[in-house]
Amino acid sequence: MPYLKGSDSDYGPVYIREKGELRLIADPVNVEKVGPCKIKPHSHLKKCGSVRFCNREGDQTTSTKNNDPVFLTLRYSAKPLFDIALGFVADNVQYIDSLIGFPEQVAKKLFAAAEERKKFVDPGAGLQALQTFSKAYGSLVLSSLCLKSRYLLVSEKLEEIKSFQGLSCLDLSSCQLGDDHELLQHLTTEALSSLVKLGLGDNCLSDSGLRKMTAPVRVMKRGLKNLELLDLSCNPNIGELGIGYLCCFKKLSVLDISGAGAKLSESLLQMLQNKMGLVPADSPLQDFSHAHCKTEGWAEQVIVQWNSIISDSAKPRISFMPRTVAQRFYGKETSMKGVLAPPSLAFNTKETASKVNMQFHRKPLQDICAIAYDGSLPGKTSAIQNSKKRDLEILVQDNAVPSAKRQCPPQLTLEDWHLLDSY
């Protein structure tokens, strides 16, 4: 489409087509002769200098005579009013009182616009905005959250993490929480009563921490009442007493206590089987592979922004190279980088391989019905009980830790030798 560049003094009158009508805009003297509408010349067309036409195809300049009129067709590409209003609200998202009853489709676009403007990273506006969205939409904002080995993110964004409601999966493995962390207390509130999967492996927990975490469920029947999967691996201070507190989770179907302080004894197996209906797993369960727990929801990119900012701020800015060179000159082989390196939070593969697999799960309904049917037949009850007891003893013996000293074989007596000679 040809376009106009410059003024209209060299090519005579200039016409414009608008709303189906042809109007003269170049010559103020002949405005009244063109049509019934009287308009004033636009000042921005007068200040352009010379006028010429340029075609888009060849971009060649075509000349016209001074008396020939010039016709223009204007096309407007105005921004939609919805986008303008959405951008304005996203810029001031921290001042929204409530979004309850607001359409989800519009709220999702509003959340994306605020995220694009990095409103949730702002220390002042981010917390208020997240609380407003979480109260109105719950699990749509974030349904699953994986914070494995992100202890810096947990400590820096604790209040923002506590604002999420309606989570169904939460992984806090290797976050160095301990028994008195605020996040453990937050797990017992109604905001996280929808949790189905919870990972607390390698968090320095003990029996006291499990007692506090299960107190609302045991006493007031609220809290983690919908929990189905619990990972307590690599917590050496958790004993059989702490595992007994888990009996209040009636829906718990998968449990991992590998690397805990509790030993795989007959009393522990009987407690888990009788009170919780859990039996030892024959092989490692795929539920604890940490591949099923991912951050999902509207705020997925918000977590990525937090993590990138915190990881960039945690990088060391001081170079220890001169001091390292000086130490090598004086014969010290230990470098400052090795001394000041942060401790690795990854599990040791050798220790993990040597640990006993203590994962428990509930048997399928078909196996339970088969056992109940066999037990109902006459003459088989005692045999089933004896077989269960025998299998339990074999399991305990197989998983027992061997003693450090090697036991000497028993010596044969004279009667034993005579018995052998008789054969």
Can you describe this structure?
This protein has helices at about 30-35, 45, 80-90, 105-115, 125-135, 150-155, 160, 180-185, 205-220, 240-245, 265-275, 300-315, 320-330, 335-340, 350-355, 365-375, 380-400, 415-420, and strands spanning about 5, 15-20, 20-25, 50-55, 60, 70-75, 145, 170, 195-200, 230, 255, 280, 360. The chain is of the alpha/beta class. A hairpin with a 2-residue loop joins strand 2 (about 15-20) and strand 3 (about 20-25). Helix 3 crosses helix 4 (about 105-115). The longest helix has 19 residues, at about 380-400. The relative contact order is 0.08.
Largest β-sheet summary: 7 strands, mixed
- Residue stretches low in confidence (pLDDT < 50, at least 5 long) are 1-9, 27-64, 344-354, 368-384, 400-409
Continuous helix count? 18
Strand order of the largest sheet: 7-8-9-10-11-13-12
The gross shape turns out to be: elongated
Helix and strand topology:
Layout: E1 3-5, E2 14-18, E3 21-24, H1 31-34, H2 43-46, E4 52-54, E5 61-62, E6 70-73, H3 81-91, H4 104-116, H5 126-137, E7 144-146, H6 151-156, H7 158-162, E8 169-171, H8 182-186, E9 197-199, H9 207-220, E10 229-231, H10 240-244, E11 254-256, H11 266-275, E12 279-280, H12 300-314, H13 321-329, H14 336-340, H15 349-354, E13 359-361, H16 365-376, H17 381-399, H18 414-422
Parallel strand pairs: 2-6, 7-8, 8-9, 9-10, 10-11
Antiparallel strand pairs: 1-4, 2-3, 4-5, 11-13, 12-13
Helix pairs in contact: 3-4
